[in-house]
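Colleagues,

Please find the record for the two-part complex below.
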Amino acid sequence: MSEGLLIIISGPSGAGKGTVCKELLSMNLPDLELSVSATTRKPRTGELEGISYFFKEKEEFVQMINQNEFIEYAQVYDNFYGTPRSYVQNKLDSGKDVILEIDIQGAMQVKKNNPEGVFVFIMPPSFEELKHRIISRGTDSHKDILKRLHEAYREVLLSRNYDYIVTNDDVKTAADKVRSIITAEKCKLQRTKIDYESYKED
Amino acid sequence: MSEGLLIIISGPSGAGKGTVCKELLSMNLPDLELSVSATTRKPRTGELEGISYFFKEKEEFVQMINQNEFIEYAQVYDNFYGTPRSYVQNKLDSGKDVILEIDIQGAMQVKKNNPEGVFVFIMPPSFEELKHRIISRGTDSHKDILKRLHEAYREVLLSRNYDYIVTNDDVKTAADKVRSIITAEKCKLQRTKIDYESYKED
C-alpha cells in the first residue's frame, strides 16, 4: 500500500486558510482527508467525538504531550489543541492524504519531525485586504486589530520556510492551486514507484 | 516582468507525449505556448514558417549549431531538428511559459544547459499497452517493432533523470496532471516574489 501525503496548510490569521480548506474538501478528491485535532476544550452543541475533535481531559492531554504523542500542539488560553501522531500516521499508512490546517507555530513544529510533508502557506492577497478582513470581523478592539496586523506581518515573513505560497485573492482559485500542488507532488519522481523491469521485452 | 517556466515534456515513442501536449494546449492556459522548432526538412503542404517550424537551409543550421544557438538539436536521417535558444529565451523573458515537446536525447541536452526547467516524463501505462500502440500503428516491420520496444525500455530507465513522471493511462487525466505541475511550480517558494515589506503596518 502506498503512503499518502501529509499536507500542511497554514497562514496568518485573516489569510483565509479555513475557507480554502473547506473549498478544497468540497472538491471530493479521492483519498483526501482533513485531520482531526485533539483538544481539552468542552464539546459545543453539535460537535462529535472523533469528527469535530478528539475531546480529552487535561491530564490525559498532558500525558500525551509527555509521551511525544503529538505532531504539534499548542495552548490557547486555558485549552490545549494538538494533532495526534498515531491518528495521522495510520491514515498515511493506509494511503490517505491528510491535511493539517494549522497555525504557523504548529506548522514549524511539524516541519521538525515531518520534513517530508508538503508545506503550503496561504498568503493574504495584500496588507489592505488583510486589514479589511480583520476589521470586518467586528470582534476585535482597535488595540487587538493592531496586534493582529503586527503578528500577521511577522507570520508573513515565516512563509520563507514553506514549500509553496498560495495567494488567496479568490477562494476557488486558491483551492484549485492547492489541488494542483497535491496532484503535482504525487507525480514527483521520488514519490512514483515505477516497475522498470516490466517494460523489458522478454 | 516575471520570467516564465520552461517545461520539457518527453517520453518514449508510443507514450503519447504529442497527444498529451495537444490536450494541454486545448485547455487554453494563459501564457502557455508550444515552442517552435527549426528544421532543415522541406515544408509539407499547409506547414507555415514560424508556426509549424522555422525552415532553414542545412548550411545555416550547421552554422547555428556551431554558434551554440540551439538548446538541443538532433539529426534524424538526412534532416536536422533543433530548438532555437533565442526564440525560447525571448518567450520566457516576456513571461510566457514555453513547452518543449522533445525526445529523451533532446531533453537530456536541455537539462545540461537549463537545469531550472521543469522536466516531465510521459510514461506509457504498461509494456503491454506500449506494444499494442506501436504495433497498431501498422507502419513498422516485426524487426522494427522489436527495436522500438527495446529502445522504449532503455528510455523508460532514463525517466530517473526527470522531475515528474506522468503515466498516460488516459490523455485527459495525463494533461490535467501536467497542468497541475505547471500551476504548482508557479506556487513554489523559490518562484514567488513576495513584497514582504508591504505587509508591515505603518
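The beta strands of chain B are 6-10, 32-34, 38-39, 54-55, 70-76, 79-84, 97-101, 118-123, 164-167.

Comments are welcome before we finalize the supplementary table.
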